[in-house]
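=== Structure Prediction Worksheet ===
Name of assembly: unnamed complex
Input type: mixed (protein and possibly other molecules)
Chain count: three
Listed entries:
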Amino acid sequence: MTVPLGAYVAVSAVLFFIGCAGVLVRRNAVVILMCVELMLNAANLALVAFSRKYGSIDERGSVFVVFVFVIAAAEVAVGLAIILSAYRNRPVVDVDQIHQMKG
Amino acid sequence: MPVGPFGIDPLIWAPLRLVIAVGLALFLVLNGALLQIYLERKIQAVIQDRLGPYHVGPFGLLQTFADALKLISKEDVRAAATDGWFFVAAPALVFCPMLASWVVLPFAQDIVGTNLNIGLLYLTTLGSMTVLGIVIAGWASNNKYALVGGLRSAGQLISYEIPQILALVSVVLVVGSLSMIDITRSQAGPLVNALVLPFPFLIYFIAALAETNRTPFDLPEAESELVAGWLTEYSGMRWGTMLALSEYGNVTVVCAIVTTLWFGGWQGPGVDAIPLLGVLWFTLKVYAFILIMMWIRATLPRLRIDQLMSFCWKGLIPAALVNILVVAALALAFPTTKIPIAIASWVLVVLFVAGIPFVQRRRLRVLRARARASAAPAVRAVS
Amino acid sequence: MTFDFVEPVVFALLAIGVIAGGAAVVLLSRITAGALLMAFTFLCMAGMFVLLGAETIAAFQVLIYVGAITVLILYGVMFTKFGDRPRALFFQRQTPLAVVFVAAVAIPVALFSFSFTSAPPRPGGGDLPALATSVFTDFAFPFEIASVLLLAAMVGAIVLTGRDDPEEAALRRRR
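=== Predicted Assembly ===
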């Protein structure tokens, strides 16, 4: 009795919306970044599940996932760089208080 | 469906097999660490013209047992301000990836935990998980020296992963498979990969010294730097797990990778007749490299953190990239023979080793100019 | 005695791990604990990839996410101080509204996704050869663009966080 495709997609959907809620709900910028990573992971799971269960022999879904890995890594690096350099300017990491564009 | 020996019920054999595998790996790690701690002390003693342990047991062979007993019976000191769960979990996070990597090491023809077709990728992946444990250990100690030591160690480990993986990739390009057994089998007889690809061997060996925190890259764990860095608050068996077991386990895994990729793994005279002899050859080769690492530890001084990082990013990574470029181009141009790759690799080794004096001379000139430039205004400021 | 029950049981455990880890990231007020549980989510995710037969992707997942991104996020957490405050202030003011909207979208989507069914099973054998061939032949150009993207991200991160070396700043001032 193998696990049906729908189960994987459901897990992916639940994780995606947990991450989505996290981005809308938390104040800390680093936590928001973590929730974005959760969303990217959920998308990866859906892509790989469809690719392995339905896809053609050349694994295009998994190739897409490789590129999502690359982009997620680049995004975390640059996002954290932005947060840290803003923190150096004014030592707050609460997104409600990082609202001044000057200085 | 794995039917066990003596026809054991498969439902019992499947989990039993797992337990036996983990137990065997643990047994090998513990005994390996025991032996290596003793070897390290004796070899350092011989090189430093002294005696080393000789009280406990004949030639001091039981010294490590005595040390282990002492560590286990030590009081479990845990500062109240340390971060509860993380402090306790960090040794596990450092130890478990190392234990998990023993499952793909090929000891002999059929004696391997499992022949994963991504065996080498699996090993590098587990190597990158150790970083997390070290950062957590530094953070959980609630001690600024430990934190800085942990972050420095993490930076070192992450940086040296890159030349390590690049060197492994060039070997995989020539062999054509990531499976450890296939890589071993691709080296027929005495024509081991070290004759074909010595430059990646050099790069990997140096990067592996840094990955396992061995001298000359052992700044994060040396006792005279930052009060032992990320290990400061750990004592007793926690220290024993994190430092002794994990480090020597990692050293063994890394030397096993070197043996498999560059020196023919379990192959040696007489293996075709008696397959079990492969274990002996494998162990001898692995311990030869471990002894070389200990020899290096007893000989070379430590690098500072900025020297270490600039050696990685400005020295090893360009070398590894040039290596991949050359190997890939030649493998594509001459797909049937390995001789052009071998020639190119040896030329690169000679260039790398012979180029060191030139690089040193240029850096010395830059440092001297900088010292002269900054000495002048200081004199003006004083007067 | 067949082992058919193993796959659904393992999937259930991994699914619980993934969702519990995700919930922990959103709900916990201690951020380091949240970061570690996020790493646990990534590990369970890698387990799911293995269950699907994509073991190379699983290895990449652990290598990139657990090995690098978690460490980056921990660095970010350690260098920014998010002070002690009552638990309510960890969440935005619009929390109840956001939860209602997200749940309103999430529940139908999750229920709909159960309706997907698999095609007849393909021969197994892992994904390494197919993945490697695809990336380096059909998708070679995006692969090169991804390398340039990583280079740009690396340079950008260094430039954004780089501080002036005091010696070099002094040299520049004197020139």
